[in-house]
């Protein structure tokens, strides 16, 4: 029997066992008996993509375990935009509302822990968490997102998601017409220049070294009256994440209110790679049109395998949930 309880009386006890503050341990937990259950689906990652998949699966009466370590990529951003019905909302509030709705479905459980290992025996996967719990399932869905790797520029990580922005659709409107910089070079910076010039005509590109634009790109940037600064970037000046300027190697300071940058990223969770899941050239998990990876029974959705936005993550999660449910339904139906 799957046990699914509210953390009311046992929360602090369980919290100390998991070394997670009891305030974080809202919603539901599992008791020891669930370690002997085979879940229909274990979803690793309980943010927008994972919760969306759990909604589709819970509504299909599937026994689902969500395991989440509570570190979504947008956690530092004060307000989230461009997701209808939730525009301007705090990212955590969107996830909490989704979590509460998903956990209305009795067959879905949520467990706060880090998934540390998955092994396979025949058609059954065994998940082991950092706190040593083990769970079994026939299908596994990675909704684990990406981890952005902050460059070693002082001040960059403090401003990340507050005034250093990666996405004009998410945060560009809020800094429209402001003194805006683009930190990047070559095709990436050119792409940003095309996109952001629609939001502000006070644009400077900081290439942090010799510019690598093609002749045509150079001319277009020039014609659009965008400055290119090739000096090395030494530091980002800011107050509590709100940037005021960018300090260059020659000692000059360029005043700015917003800076676009796209730091490199890696898969937040390495387990799919350990299991043999392939990556695309961009470093995303390779999936088919049913969200399945190259390994049968292993699915992926959200940022780890697609364009980054909450709307896209929710859509991919919903598709993954439906695809997994269809696979489970077909397997059972065809056995009769
Ligand atoms: C700074 C920033 C601001 C953004 N602002 C916006 C915005 O305004 N509007 C918008 O539409 N989009 C925005 N985005 C994009 C949006 O946040 C992502 O597209 C969305 O969060 C992706 O959802 P996801 O569920 O795929 O991944 P995430 O939200 O990143 O969640 C992944 C979850 O998996 C968990 N996890 C990872 N590994 C493990 C593991 N081993 N065990 C257990 N759990 C694990 C993590 O803790 C996390 O909770 C922003 C992104 C960034 C980086």
What would you note in describing this structure?
Helix content is 26%, strand content 26%. The chain has 336 residues and is an alpha/beta fold. The protein folds into 2 domains: 5-148 and 265-335, 3-Layer(bba) Sandwich (FAD/NAD(P)-binding domain); 156-261, 3-Layer(bba) Sandwich (FAD/NAD(P)-binding domain), CATH 3.50.50.60. Residues 1-29 have low confidence and may be disordered. The structure holds flavin-adenine dinucleotide. Residues 44-50, 67-74, 77, 80-83, 114-115, 143-145, 148, 161, 166, 170, 268-269, 302-303, 308-311, 313 line the site of flavin-adenine dinucleotide.
Short description:
By secondary structure, the chain is of the alpha/beta class.
Low-confidence stretches: 1-29
| Main beta sheet | 7 strands, mixed
Into which percent range does the helicity of residues fall?
25-40%
Number of domains: 2
Mean pLDDT: 90
Shape: elongated
Q: Please report the number of helical segments.
A: 9
- The value of Rg in angstroms is 22 Å
- The CATH architecture name of the largest domain reads 3-Layer(bba) Sandwich
CATH superfamily of the largest domain: FAD/NAD(P)-binding domain
Q: What is the first-to-last residue Cα distance?
A: 24 Å
- The overall strand count is 19
Which H/E pattern describes the elements?
EHEEHEHEEEEEHEHEHEHEEEEEEHEH
């Amino acid at each position: 029997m799957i046990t699914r309880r509210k953390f009311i009386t046992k929360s602090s006890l369980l919290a100390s066992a998991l070394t997670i503050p009891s305030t974080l341990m809202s919603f539901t937990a599992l008791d020891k008996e669930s370690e002997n259950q085979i879940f229909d689906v274990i979803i690793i990652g309980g943010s927008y993509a994972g919760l969306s998949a759990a909604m589709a699966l819970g509504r299909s009466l599937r026994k689902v375990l969500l395991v989440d370590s509570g570190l979504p990529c947008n956690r530092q951003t004060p307000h989230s935009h461009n997701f209808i019905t939730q525009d301007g909302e705090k990212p955590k509030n969107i996830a909490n509302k989704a979590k509460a709705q998903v956990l209305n479905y009795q067959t879905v459980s949520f467990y706060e822990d880090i998934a540390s290992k998955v092994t396979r025996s025949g058609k059954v996967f065994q998940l082991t968490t950092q706190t040593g719990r083990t769970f079994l399932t026939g299908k596994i869905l990675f909704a684990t997102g990406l981890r952005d790797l902050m460059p070693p520029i002082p001040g960059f990580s403090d401003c990340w998601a507050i005034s250093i922005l990666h996405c004009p659709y998410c945060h560009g409107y809020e800094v429209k017409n402001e003194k805006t910089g683009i930190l990047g070079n070559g095709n990436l910076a050119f792409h940003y220049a095309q996109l952001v010039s629609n939001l502000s005509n006070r644009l400077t590109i900081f290439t942090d070294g010799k510019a690598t634009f093609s002749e045509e790109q150079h001319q277009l940037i020039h014609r659009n009256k965008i400055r290119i600064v090739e000096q090395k970037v030494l530091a980002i000046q800011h107050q509590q994440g709100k940037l005021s300027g960018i300090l260059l190697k020659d000692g000059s300071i360029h005043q700015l209110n917003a800076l676009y940058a796209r730091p490199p990223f890696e898969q937040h969770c390495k387990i799919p790679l350990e299991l043999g899941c392939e990556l695309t050239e961009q470093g995303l998990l390779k999936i088919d049109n049913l969200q399945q990876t190259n390994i049968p029974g292993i699915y992926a959705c959200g940022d780890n395998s697609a364009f980054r936005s909450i709307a896209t993550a929710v859509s991919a999660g919903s598709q993954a949930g439906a695809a997994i449910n269809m696979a489970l339904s077909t397997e059972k139906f065809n056995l009769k």
